[in-house]
Amino acid sequence: MKKTGIFTMLIIMALSITGCWSRKELNELAVTIGLGIDKTEQGYRITTQVVAPRQAGSSSGTGSPPALVMSTEEKTVMEALRKMTTKLPRKIYLSHLSILLIDEAIAREGVLNALDFLFRDHEVRPNFDVVIVRNGSAHDALSILTPLEQMPARDMFDSLNESEKVWAPTAAVTLLDLMKWFNTEGQQAVITGLNLVGDVEKGKGKDNIAVLDSPAKFEYSGIGVMKDQILVGWLNDSDSKAYNYVTGKVKSTVGKVECPDKEGQYVMELVHSETKIKPLIRNGEPAASVEIAVEANIAEVECKLNLNDRKVLEQVRELAAQKTKELIDHGIKEVQHRYASDIFGFGQKFHQKYPKEWKKWRNEWRRYFSKMDVEVIVKYEIKGRGRIVNPIQKGLVE
Amino acid sequence: MTSRELCMLLTLSYWGSALLGLPSVLIGVSGSDAWLPILLGTGFQFLLIPVFTGIFKQMNGNTVGQYLNRILGRWIGKGLLAVYLFFVPFQILVLTLRSLGDFTSTDLYIETPPAAIYIIILFAMVYCLHKGISAVAKSTEITFPIAGLLLVVLLLSLLHGAEWNRLLPFLDNGAGPVLHGTTMFIGYPNSEIALSLFLAPFIQSKQTYRKALWQSSILTGLGLLFLTIMVTVVLGENLPPNIPYASQFAAKTVTVGGFYERIETAVTVIWFIVMFYRMIFTFYICAHGLADLFGLKQHFAFLIPLALLCIPLAMLVWDNPSVTAEITAVWPTGVIFFNILLPLSWLILGKIKGRPVSK
C-alpha cells in the first residue's frame, strides 16, 4: 500500500517537474544575432539577422548564406518583432543578440523610445553593443555579407571590440552602459558610428564573399556625442581617441608624431595607459585635472635619428608626450565648446567628491562644463624600440 | 535541533526574498549608502538578541501559545497569538509565495501560470512538514552550503564589473535616507528574529539558542551587506531602484573574457533555495501556531487546508505588481510593532508575573 502511494507520487512529480510548460526547443527558435532599427514614416522598421542553422554548422558551405535577414515595419518595436512571425516559421529569440544597429534619424530624435523594449524584455541580455549607422540604414548594414566571419553581426561585434582594443577611436558601448548613462546625473552617453563603404547593393549578394576585395564593407568611424537621449554630433578620429584617453578606455593604440627635424614622422605604439581624473574647485568654480600615464614603444621611424642616444630618446619622448597632450586638449575643448555635453563624466566625479557644490551646479551643469578649466597632464614613458635600433640606412647618423 | 541547524534555517529564511529584492529597495531609499543601513540594522539586531533569549528563558520549553496563555491569561493570549499568526507568518507566507510567482512569471517561466508553481511548491512543503520541522532543519546541512557557495561565486563574479567610486558620495542627502533605510532593514528581514521563538521547544538550552541567533544575524547581515555593496558598485545608485530584481540583473551583466557568462542561473538557484526555507518556516509556524490555538497536539491536520488557502490568496493579494512598492513602504511599521514591540512587552510582563513564582 505504502509503496503504491510513493510510486504514484513519484509519477505525479515526474510529470510536473519536467517544466514543459513554456518550453522552446531549438528548432522552434529563430536565434537572432543582429538587430536593426530604422525610422520610417510608419514607425520603425525592424531588421533581424537570424542564424540559418543548417548553413552555419557546415564547414564546406552549401552555397547559401549562413544567416538570413528579415524585416518588418510597425509603429512600435515589439509589434514589429512579433509581426516577424508572419514571415518566419519561428519566434525571434533575442538572448544571443550581439549587436544592435540604429539609424541616425532615430539617434537625432532620441533613442529611448526605440530602446525601451530592449531594456525591459527579460530575454534580452544587456551585453550587446549598440552602434549608430551614419550613412544608410540599419537594414542595409545588416544585409551585407562578410568574408571573414560567417555571421555578419558577429563580424561587426568582433570588429568593434577589436578596434576599441588596438585602435582606440571607437567605443564598444553596450546596452548596459546606456542604461547606466541615461540614468546618471553628470554623465552623458556616447555611441560609436558605423559607415557603409562601397557598393551596398552588390554587397548583399554572394559577390561580396566570392571576391578577395569585397565591394561593400562596413567601417567604424567616430564617436557620437549624445545629449541626454539625442545625438548632437560626431567626433572625428583624433577627438574620439581623446575621449577614450580621458575615460581611461585606451588599451592600446598608435599615434604618429612629427620628427624633431620636421622631416617625416615616427609612430608610437601605446601598450599601456591609465587615467586619473581629479575634480577640483578653483575660486568656487569647477575645474579638473586629467592625469594620463602612458607606456609606449617606438613602432615605426621615418626620421634620421640616433635612437641609441639618451638625449635623442628623451626628445622623442617629450615630443610624443606633447602630441598626446595636444590631442587630448583638443578633444576636450571640442566637446566642451561645440557640444557642451559631459560625455567624460566630470559631473559624476564632482557629485562623488564635492556633493555640496554639485547640488548648486547640477541644474546648470552644461554651462559649467563648457567653461570648465581642464588641465591635462601626460606622463609618457618609452618602453622599447622594437627589433632594430635605428632605421636601416647606409652610414651612421652623426 | 542543534544550534548549527537552527542558525542555518534562520539564515536561509532571513535571506528569503531579501537576496533578490532588498538591494533594489535599499538603494532606492538610501542611494549609494545602502550598505550603511545594513550595518546599522545588524547592529540593532544584536541589541535585540538578549530580548529574545530572555523570552526563551521565560518560555521554559513551552510553545509560544502556552507561554502567552501563561503570562497574559487564556483569552488575551489566544487572541494575541491569532492576530500575530495572521499578521506576521501567514502574511509573509502568502506574500513570499506571490513574489515567487511574480519572479517566475517576469523573469523565468513567463508563460507558466503562477498557480502551477504555487501548487508544486506547496505540495513539496506539505510533504516536508509532514516529515517534521526537525527533518527540514536537518536538510539545511545540504542546502545551506550550496546556497552559501553560490552566493560567494556570485559575489566574486560581480567583482569584475565593479567601479568602487560608485559608493561615493557618502551621505549625499544627509542622515535621513540612511535612517529610513535602517528602519526598512530592521523591519525586513531583521525583525523576523521573533519567528525563531516558535522553534524554542526544539532547542535544548538558552546557550544553543543564543549562539544560533548571533550566528544567523551575522551571516544574514554579511550576505546582504556584500550583495548590496556589489550591486551598488556594479549598477550604480540610479539604475537598481528601477529594477526590482537588481541582483539578478547585476548577475546578467557579468561577462569575463567572453565566455564566463550567465551567472544569473546561480542567483535563481540560490533564490529558490532561500525562498523555499522562508516559506516552509512560516508555513510551519502557521500550522503549529494554529494547532496551539485550538489545543491540538498535532499540526498535520492544518497543512493541507493552509496550503489550499494560500493559493487563491497569493493570486488575489495584489492586483498588479505596483502594489509591492506600497507594501514595502508600510511593511516596517507593522512588523516592527509585531516582532519587536510586542515581544518586548511580553518580556516585561513575563518578568513582572514571573517574580512571585521565583520568590
Question: Can you lay out the helices and strands and say which pair or pack?
Answer:
The complex is a heterodimer of chains A (398) and B (359).
Chain A: H1 2-17, E1 29-39, E2 44-51, H2 53-57, E3 67-74, H3 77-83, E4 91-93, E5 99-103, H4 104-109, H5 112-120, E6 129-133, H6 138-143, H7 152-166, H8 175-183, E7 190-198, H9 200-203, H10 207-210, E8 216-227, E9 230-235, H11 237-246, E10 253-258, E11 265-282, E12 285-301, H12 310-339, H13 346-353, H14 355-361, H15 365-370, E13 373-384
Parallel strand pairs in A: 1-4, 1-5, 5-6, 6-7, 12-13
Antiparallel strand pairs in A: 1-2, 2-3, 7-8, 8-9, 10-11, 11-12
Chain B: H1 3-30, H2 35-59, H3 64-72, H4 74-108, H5 114-130, H6 133-159, H7 176-187, H8 206-235, H9 246-252, H10 264-293, H11 300-316, H12 322-358
Helix pairs in contact in B: 1-6, 1-7, 1-8, 1-10, 2-7, 2-8, 2-12, 3-4, 4-5, 4-10, 4-11, 5-10, 5-11, 6-8, 6-10, 7-12, 9-10, 10-11
Structural features, described:
With 398 residues, chain A is α/β, with parallel strands linked by helices. Helices cover 36% and strands 30% of the residues of chain A. Chain A has helices at 2-17, 53-57, 77-83, 104-109, 112-120, 138-143, 152-166, 175-183, 200-203, 207-210, 237-246, 310-339, 346-353, 355-361, 365-370, and strands spanning 29-39, 44-51, 67-74, 91-93, 99-103, 129-133, 190-198, 216-227, 230-235, 253-258, 265-282, 285-301, 373-384. In chain A, strands 1, 2, 3, 4, 5, 6, 7, 8 and 9 form a nine-stranded mixed sheet that branches. Chain A has a four-stranded mixed sheet with strand order 10-11-12-13, with helices on both faces. In chain A, helix 11 (237-246) crosses helix 12 (310-339) and helix 13 packs across helix 14 (355-361). The radius of gyration of chain A is 26 Å and the shape is globular. The longest helix of chain B is centred in the last third of the chain and has 37 residues, at 322-358. In chain B, helix 6 packs parallel to helix 8 and helix 7 crosses helix 12. Chain B is globular, with a radius of gyration of 20 Å. Helix content of chain B is 76%, strand content 0%. Chain B has one domain (3-353): Amino acid/polyamine transporter I (Up-down Bundle).
